[in-house]
Amino acid sequence: MRLPNYYAAPGFERAGLRRRDPDWLREQVADSRSQFVPVWRSQNLVVDLAGAEPCAALVTVETVSLILGGLDDPDAHLAHGRIVFLGVIDERAHFALDLSAVEAPLDMLRDPALAASGIPAEALRFADLRQLAGRLPRHEGALLAFARAMLFWHSRHRFCGLCGSPTLSEEAGHMRRCTDPACKAMHFPRTDPAVIMLVAEGERVLLGRQKSFPPGMYSTLAGFVEPGESLEDAVAREVREETAIEVDAVVYHSSQPWPFPANIMLGFHARAVSTEITIDPGELEDARWFERSWLLAHVDDDSFRLPRRDSIARRLVEDWLAGRIEL
Ligand SMILES: [Zn+2]
């Protein structure tokens, strides 16, 4: 069985039916066994000890109560999307916790209750999940990605897109409804589809780099799916626009949640039917054909490196290099 892409968590129990069970939710928020995933301005809380790989830092209701100044009214925190129900792991409810309104949450986390759990306060930090680039255990990467994505959506949907009135969260954070009684529009968390594709021709693969990439990094091409467009058409259009290469035989590979900030990456491979590259300098700094044998022999350095290990781009290239993608 092949591994799912990083940030995906098959089997994670989202317990969707519990989202409409306010009594159960109230109980779980107050339960000392429940776990909260703190997010501060799109950054996740991690334990980062020198000499060790980072791991997710989850907190319990005691710490949450301390930071929020009490938890007497959990419904209010749920209604404002500060607490969002994520799901159940090992029979313990897990919630995303938005600490963005707190100016210096780390100071508040230096609390005896947390220290008692054995984590030194100085080991805690808020980090950009992307910068950790797959160093967290997979299940933690998926949980933190989910929490980050949900709270990002809440932060961008506090007002109704139809009438401009404030919205409030329902269904434990999985829907926001307009508070204007004449409107009551429902808004749901969204994830925007983007296609990402490995394009090959015989023993060569097409990789490009954007100016914003780390030094030497080349990656598979990618782009957003537009309204009124099939995924296959989006693949062909993006490759044509960015490099003037024509493709056929577009085949689905796998997908990856990509909450940076709100995407799902849909991975494909496609066969090139032309070879002359003309880049769109607005999108790419460079694009080239790379031979399989050269890629297999090369060790990443500042002249050339493959995409980050947490990305589906890396997965596509490695699967092709290993002969798992036939074109
Ligand atoms: Zn409205």
Number of DSSP helical runs: 10
Helix % is 25-40%
| Sheet having the most strands | 6 strands, mixed
Order of helices and strands: HEEEHHEEHHEHHEEEEEEHEEEHH
Which ligands appear in the coordinates? zinc ion
Rg over alpha carbons: 22 Å
Mean pLDDT: 94
- What's the number of extended β-strand segments? 15
What ranges have pLDDT less than 50 throughout 5 or more consecutive residues?
A: none
Q: What is the SS-derived class?
A: alpha+beta
> How much β-strand is present in the residues?
25-35%
Shape: globular
C-alpha end-to-end distance = 21 Å
What do you see in this structure?
This protein has 327 residues and is of the alpha+beta class. It contains ten helices and 15 strands. The protein has helices at residues 22-30, 61-68, 74-79, 105-109, 112-115, 129-132, 138-156, 231-243, 292-297, 312-321; strands at 35-40, 43-47, 55-56, 83-89, 92-98, 124-127, 167-170, 175-178, 186-187, 192-201, 204-209, 221-224, 247-258, 263-272, 286-291. A hairpin with a 7-residue loop joins β8 and β9. The chain is globular and about 65 Å long. The structure holds zinc ion. Zinc ion (ZN) binds at residues 160, 162-163, 165, 178, 180, 183, 185.
